[in-house]
Amino acid sequence: MNKRKLLALVLTGVMAISTLAGCGSSDTKTSDTDVKASETAETSDKNVLRVGMECAYAPFNWTQDSDTTPDGSKAVPIYGSDYYAYGYDVAVAQKLADEMGMDLEVHKVEWSSIGISLDAGDYDVIIAGMGKTAEREASYSFTEPYYYRDNCIVVKKGSAYENVKGLSDLAGTGCKVTTQLGTGWVPLLDQIEGAEQSGNYETTSECFMAISNGVADVCVVDLPTAQSAALTNDDLVIIQLDADDSFTGDDEMVNVCIATRKDDTALRDKIQDAMDAIGWNDKAKMDELMDTVLTQQPAAN
C-alpha cells in the first residue's frame, strides 16, 4: 500500500470518529435539556392543587357557562373544557389553594370513578362532598371535616308520604326508595321496613327526577343537596326525620372531608394545615358559606 492510500484511510477514520463523537455530544445535550424540562414540569405541578369533583352535585359543586356569579365570586375553569365550576367545594378549594400559594385546577369526573381517577393520578385531591366512611378510610387519607351536614328524605308534593315524620311512618307502606349510587346513603335504604328498591342513580339530579315523575317515592340524601334541588323544583318536599325515629349508623355521611391518595399523607397534612390556618374548623363559617352558595347556583342546577 502506498503512502497516499494509507494517508487517505487514516483521514477517513479520523473523520468517522469525529462524526460519532459529535452525535454523542448532541444526544447528551438533548437528554440534559429533556431532564431539565421534566424537572421544571414537576416543580410547576407542585404549585397546582389538582382537585377532582363531579361538577354536578349542587350546592357542593356544579357546572356553569361563565366565570361570573351573582355575588361577584369567580367560578373556576374546568380542566380540558370551556365550562366553569362553582359551589361550596370550589369555594373551599380556592380558599385552601390561596392559603398554600397554589393555583387551583378543577377536574370534572363521574362519581362512580372519582376514586379510580385519583389513584390513576388524574388529580391529587377529592373535594366533592365526600363523607368519610370506614370503607373509604381503608383506601384514602382524609382531612378533618370541611363541612358537617344533616341527612333527610325527599318526597313528592301531594303524595301519600308528604306528612311523614319518621321511619315508622314509612314502615310497611311498600314505598319505592332511591338514592345516589356509591354513597353511604345506599345502606340506609334497608332501614325503611318493607320498602321497594326502585334502583339508584349516578347523580342526585336523576334521583330527584325519579321522585318528580313517580318512579320513586322516597329519596335519601343530604339536606343541602335537597335544599338546592327544591329551589328549582316545586314538586319536592324535604323531610327531616324525628331524631328518635330516624336512620342509625349514618354518622359517617355527616362528616364531609377532603381525600388524598392513601400514601400521600404529606399533601393531606399540608391541606389540613391550611384548613387550620384559615380557621376552617368553625361550623358557623361552614354554614355561612353554604347558605351563600345556595343563592349563587344557576337555575339549571
From TrEMBL:
Record key words, sorted: Signal
Q: Which residues form the signal peptide?
A: 1-21
Keyword set includes Signal: yes
* One Pfam family recorded for the sequence: SBP_bac_3
Q: Which residues form the Solute-binding protein family 3/N-terminal domain?
A: 48-287
Q: Which PROSITE patterns match?
A: PROKAR_LIPOPROTEIN (PS51257)
PANTHER family assigned: MEMBRANE-BOUND LYTIC MUREIN TRANSGLYCOSYLASE F
From the Swiss-Prot or TrEMBL record, give the protein name: Transporter substrate-binding domain-containing protein
Native species: Roseburia amylophila
